[in-house]
Specification:
single chain, two-stranded parallel sheet, about 60% helix, alpha/beta
Length: about 350
């Protein structure tokens, strides 16, 4: 069974008794964990009860394939349906799950967490095609999703937020749902008192050092052609838990936004496009740099060709980084450096640092 992304949260709260297993996959690792916890909670009232919840690792299951069926068939001493939580599921486990879903022993719900599986993934295709299983996608939050999460958490704490503060959060969070929640929790603690209004200065004080902002720094440095700033931001992003693939995606998304802004500005004012037509809108502190970069990367045919070549280079590197055993940090660093070095209108300062 294939679950639509828009229905994922509702499904996670009530998966139904007929399902034997759910595969949760996608690039947002925090959202994968959050929805796995919701699925377990839908079956097990107390997730700390060892009789109701069993946890397996992918490595252990690969060594002992029978463990999956054994745990699913086990009966809880305290009564009630059990859950089995498997972390780091991969395509190599597809044959084990195929046998498990075909045999149908026990009534436990197996919750398998995986990374970003492509449409051709054997494990994903198995869960999507099975009647007694489901595949649940977890894509990164867009500005609207982030806004809903932020507003809900602030309202629960009795806080409100200014438009500028919400715009900043929408522009700089969203790569990881649990990271977003931690940042908003910090903001709530910072304000401290219900009834307060969160302003832009409060957000900058609390959220200014997030991993998502490191990605912004990389993308803007690449757009400027500033190699030293790009290298510093790249290393910082890795230290803060960003993956090379995520960094490549952030740079590619930035170049695509430059491309889109230029196209929309053909029939409108660029400043208006940046404020109201791009989603999320360009944060005001980055507006001057973004405006300059739109002109440099799309101002003439040669620049537009370079932008297209850069996007192709990033896409090619992304695919290479996803290969098993690939030196992904080296590949991503080299590709991003090459794109920055070829930035149109790159200044002498940017060249020499």
């Amino acid at each position: 069974m294939k679950i639509k992304a828009a229905d994922a949260d509702k499904f996670a709260r009530n998966p139904g008794p007929e399902l034997r297993a759910v595969l949760i996959y996608g690039p947002d690792a925090g959202l994968v964990r959050e929805r796995a916890e919701a699925l377990v909670a839908a079956v097990v009232e107390d997730p700390t009860d060892p009789f109701r919840l069993a946890e397996l690792s992918a490595g252990r299951l690969a060594e002992q394939p029978a463990l999956l069926a054994d745990e699913a068939a086990a009966i809880s001493f305290t009564g009630g349906r059990r859950a089995v939580r498997l972390r780091d599921a991969a395509d190599s486990l597809a044959p084990i799950f195929e046998s498990f879903l075909a045999e149908g022993q026990g009534d436990a719900l197996v919750v398998a967490e995986a990374g970003d599986l492509p449409a051709r993934s054997p494990l994903r295709k198995l869960f999507e095609g099975a009647k007694n299983a489901a595949a649940l996608p977890c894509y990164r939050d867009d500005a609207r999703d982030i806004g809903q999460v932020v507003n809900a958490m602030l309202q629960d704490a009795g806080l409100s937020a200014s438009r500028e503060a919400l715009s900043y959060l929408a522009a700089n969070l969203g790569g990881d749902r649990q990271l977003t929640r931690r940042e908003i929790e910090k903001l709530v603690l910072y304000k401290g008192q219900a009834g307060e209004r969160v302003e832009l200065a409060d957000v900058e004080a609390c959220v200014g050092d997030s991993a998502a902002l490191s990605l912004d720094d990389i993308a803007l440095a690449v757009g400027d052609g500033d190699l030293k700033a790009m290298d510093r931001a790249f290393q910082r992003a890795l230290r803060e838990g960003n993956t090379p693939v995520r960094i490549l995606g952030a740079v590619a998304q930035h170049l695509q936004r430059l491309q889109l802004a230029a196209a929309l500005a053909q029939n409108s004012d660029l400043d208006q496009v940046m404020r109201s037509k791009l989603r999320p809108p360009v944060f005001w502190k980055q507006a001057d740099r973004f405006r300059r970069q739109v002109g440099r990367w799309t101002g003439d045919a040669r620049a537009r060709q370079r932008l297209a070549e850069s996007l192709a280079r990033l896409l090619e590197t992304d695919a290479a980084c996803r290969q098993t055993g690939a030196p992904d940090e080296t590949l991503a660093s080299r590709a991003v450096m090459e794109v920055a070095a070829r930035a149109p209108g790159r200044s002498r300062t940017a060249r020499t640092g």
